[in-house]
Amino acid sequence: MRQSTPSSATSSEAEAEAIASVPTGLFTGGRWRTTARTMSVEDPSTGAVLTEVADASPEEAAAALDAAATAQADWAATPPRQRSEILSRAHRLMVEETDRLALIMTLEMGKPLAEARGEVAYAAEFFRWFAEEAVRIDGGYMTAPAGDSRFLVAREPVGPCILITPWNFPLAMGTRKIGPALAVGCTCVIKPASHTPLSILALAEILVRAGVPDGVVNVVTTKRSNDVMTPLILDPRSRKLSFTGSTEVGKGLLELAAKTVMRTSMELGGNAPFLVFEDADLDAAVEGAMQAKMRNIGQACTAANRILVQRSVAADFADRLTRRMAELPLGRGVEDGVVVGPLINAEAVDKVTELVRDAVGRGAEVRLGGQAVDRAGHYYPATVLTGVPADAEMCSAEIFGPVAALSEFDTEEEAVAIANDTPYGLVSYLYTTDLARGFRVSHALETGMVGINRGVVSNPAAPFGGVKESGVGREGGFSGIDEFLETKYISVGL
User: Fold this and answer.
1) Could you confirm whether the keyword Oxidoreductase appears in this record (predicted)?
2) Residue 267 appears among annotated catalytic residues
């Protein structure tokens, strides 16, 4: 793999200016507030500190919930068209400021600028989608079967929401939660990941300019998540919890939410199979594998974790994929042409290193890469392993790195059995030119989403979510707004 050279187009001055444009306090009740403690935000490509942001105490977080609870009634009573227009303005502002937001994201998270710009567009689209849905929240009316009354069905905002977002898609996971909450009339407290708070802080400032009233959106940054967020989740005024992150943490949050019977949406871990059948268009399958594996440097719950190829085409597919992976430049995300940026931290590199070591120890062959890069920052190169056995740890754990793990199968039934042999069920991918097989296999796969001859399935207009231990609820699409609404039945006597 070749390493990129720095570009003069993105100067250190521009990077400093982008970071300086981001507020660094807590945002509660429409005001930016300083805190006694701060936490460092690092650039994973160098390990250097970018800036310091507020590290909230439990009391400061409670003030954010106070603000959200106080603003709830007025925001719920705001006309849907007004809420829609605010979200539309936020969408336009995000699009106008794509370059600034993308640079902030790349600096704090590491993904290449091209991908960061794509995420800004994706994130903004959630605001546009839910702006359009805000004015289409419906209800129902019917005559009682006995004819003696009428049934009215209303859908109302669930109330103040706690939104917790991950570091790997720091902007899009925020808008995917904030968009429907605001569209239906819910206020919120959002806690971004401590590794990547800057994108959400920049978004909060945009929402203010878009016209979001004081207290409707509140941002709490902290590296003491358990101490700070647990009281908010247990507070009876909090009526909805939306979390994106690991299954382990999600299970703990579900236990907390059960104490107040709180509404929850959980988008948790994945172990996505990527099936390539012998009748597939191999050029298209390789392209799809590159998208499904290398999006966000492999740090995605939707990443192709297990690439399963029918034996008759396995060698050809592996050769083609290896050639493509070998072409990917590695370096800082702000450098021209970079595709493989840094992983989020040193622990992530250590995890990938151990998973590769385990697979090789069990018989896998390294076709490309396979060792961490010796340079400043947290880098692991694009890697291809073939013959990965089913008992390798990476077949049951999310790799979360740029490692393509290839295994073989003989029959369609075997492929489906291997794909489903996991407690996770977020997304799966399959490549075939047989339409009947495509539908047959997609229905047999135990996942909430399936990509047939597609390496990317995420879309703001589609319901995103999984089954089994990959979560509950859906985000995006028509279903995404339902997660923030309660149904009220009113019986009217005649």
Assistant:
1) yes
2) yes
